Amino acid sequence: MSIKHAAIVGAGVAGLTAALSLAAKGISSDIIEQAPQLGEVGAGLQLSPNATRVLDALGVLSELERHWVEPTAISLVSGKDLRPLASVPAGQFARKRWGHPYGVLHRSTLQQGLLRAVLNQPLCRLHLGHRVQGVGGDALASITHRKPDLVIGADGAWSVARDAIVGAPSVSFSGNIAWRFTVSQAAAPGFLSRTGVTAYLGAKAHLVSYPLNEIEGFNLVAIAAGTRSDESWAIDADAARRAMLLEQFSGWHRDIRTILAGAERPTFWPLYQASEGNWHNGRDTILIGDAAHAMMPFSAQGAAMAIEDAFALVVHVARAPLPSALATFTTERKARAARVKARGDFNRFAYHARGPFRLGRDIVLSLRSPETLAADLDWLYGHRIDG
């Protein structure tokens, strides 16, 4: 065992998963979070089998399954005329093909499930309401009263842990905006699938919808490319931003525009992405999740990559001296993140295609069977971290 104790900056999905992964190897940790409490954040998220495999290994999956929806399929549909384009089976098919389930749930359900496991783990200590000014061992020890062998920066796209790493990634606005909102079952139009995940595709924009048990309704995310924003954080969409939403989805099917126009309390999320850069300092500090590789949500892998990172890091740390473990982890995970990002870039091109490219996309999709589409995802959903 190369370390005995770690400090984790950030108590989001990445940080809590890291703490549980460390505890599974007998390594204690302090998790430091600036928020005074971990409340309800965000809206829905998708957990593909590569993520649920890790959560199962950490003993938290069964709790999540009590709350989530296990979609029967992930479908692509034309946003212009609601014509089905392609579908990848999920449900029992996912369990059989990739060994673990595909689920959709509220983000707070995942975070609270991880939090309960952390609070029940004697090797984990959570420190809320502490804004980190520096991530050196001494600075963190002033909060935790214990100097860590390893510092894990799991504090998201706006990471302060990056300041401890020379040449760390930086974040920049991607030119994409997400509008997020929910719709109750009673108010939901009939075209929204009650059993699956659906991506409605259109020129320079797409809309994702799936049911959420926790709110007895639907999570919707509308994403448009080629936009500008003066904001860095998610804010409530005012009249101007609502108008921008409808402008980006002009020419879409009237039923979709109706649901967008009637969205209650939508949030306006400028989407940021991380550049290339160093993830560790060569000694005792490492970045994981969005702090290392914030990427666009076009492959629905943000939470999954954070979960994978946390688990994989601990596997390497438990096997090798720390500097070697950090280097090996970074090499392995950079390659994985780059491939996921490339898939997201491909999806963005395909989802937002216009003119002849759109026609070509539709023809190609019409020729692909659900099974061959699923096979294209084996490398992603079937990924296993031995440890």
Protein described:
The chain has helices at residues 13-24, 49-57, 61-65, 91-98, 107-119, 137-144, 239-248, 254-261, 290-293, 302-319, 322-351, 355-367, 370-375, 378-381, and strands at 5-9, 28-33, 44-47, 73-78, 84-89, 103-106, 124-128, 150-153, 171-184, 197-202, 205-212, 217-225, 235-236, 267-274, 285-287. The chain is α/β, with parallel strands linked by helices. The radius of gyration is 21 Å and the shape is globular. The longest helix is centred in the C-terminal third of the chain and has 30 residues, at 322-351. The chain is 38% helix and 23% strand. Helix 1 runs parallel beside helix 5 (107-119) and helix 10 runs antiparallel to helix 11 (322-351). The mean pLDDT is 94. It has a domain at 5-71 and 99-170 and 274-353: 3-Layer(bba) Sandwich (FAD/NAD(P)-binding domain). The chain is built from 14 helices and 15 strands. The strands form three sheets. An eight-stranded mixed sheet has the order 5-4-10-11-12-9-14-13. Strands 7-2-1-8-15 form a five-stranded parallel sheet, with helices on both faces. Strand 4 (73-78) and strand 5 (84-89) form a beta hairpin.
What is the fold's blueprint, element by element?
Layout: E1 5-9, H1 13-24, E2 28-33, E3 44-47, H2 49-57, H3 61-65, E4 73-78, E5 84-89, H4 91-98, E6 103-106, H5 107-119, E7 124-128, H6 137-144, E8 150-153, E9 171-184, E10 197-202, E11 205-212, E12 217-225, E13 235-236, H7 239-248, H8 254-261, E14 267-274, E15 285-287, H9 290-293, H10 302-319, H11 322-351, H12 355-367, H13 370-375, H14 378-381
Helix pairs in contact: 1-5, 1-10, 2-10, 10-11
